[in-house]
Amino acid sequence: MLRVGILMIQGGRSEHMEAMMTAADQLGLEVEMRPIRKSTDLEAIDGIIFPGGESTSMKIATQNEGLLEEVFSFIRQTKIPVLSTCAGTILLCQNNLLNATISRNAFGRQIDSFSSPLKVLLPDESIKSVKSQSLGRDHFGHQPLPMWPEAPPESNEFLGIFIRAPRFDDCKAEAVVYLNDEIVGIRDENRLGLTFHPELTQDRRFHRWLIREMEATP
Questions:
Q1: Can you tell me the distance from the alpha carbon of 108 to that of 106, in angstroms, rounded to the nearest whole number?
Q2: pTM of the model
C-alpha cells in the first residue's frame, strides 16, 4: 500500500484526499492518506500533497514549530514525489523546489476567479470506471465540495479552476499544462506544481500521476 502525506494547514485537504482515493481505485491500487501536522508525521510516507490556501498565512501558521522547513528539508533529502496546487506551488517555488519564479494572486482577486479548458501534456493511461470516493463530513462538520465533471478519457483537455491564482514569471522546469499559451503547470523531476485546483474537478489525472511517481520511486 502506498502512503500519501497531505499537509493539513489550509486548502482543499479533504478534496485532495477524495481525489487520491478515487485515483487509486481507477488504477486498481490502494493508498493510505496520512495527515501531516508535525514533522514526525513525515515518517514512512511515499509522496506529499501541498494543497492551496494563502501562502503567507501558511508560513505564519507553521513558523513556531518549523513544520514547513522540516517538510522542505525532507523533500530535498528523500527526493519524494510531490504534487502542489496554487499556494502550495508558490511555497515550492520560493524554496527552490520548483525551478521557476512565481507571483502571488497574479490573475486577480477572489472575484476574478474563473475556470477554463487547459491543455495537458502529461502522459496518462486507460483507467477503469469507478465511483468517486466520498469522505462525508469530518468532525468539524466540513464536507468536501461537489466536483466538476471529468473530461472524456480521450481528451487532453482539463477544466482548470483558478482561485486567486498565482502566475509563473520565469520557468526553467518542464511545462506540462497550458492555459492557451501560458504555462500553468510544471514538472521538475518528480515534483509537479500547478497554479489551479485539480482537486475541485472529477478529473483525477494529476493524482494518478502522483501515484505512478510513488510507485516508481525506490
A1: 5
A2: 0.86
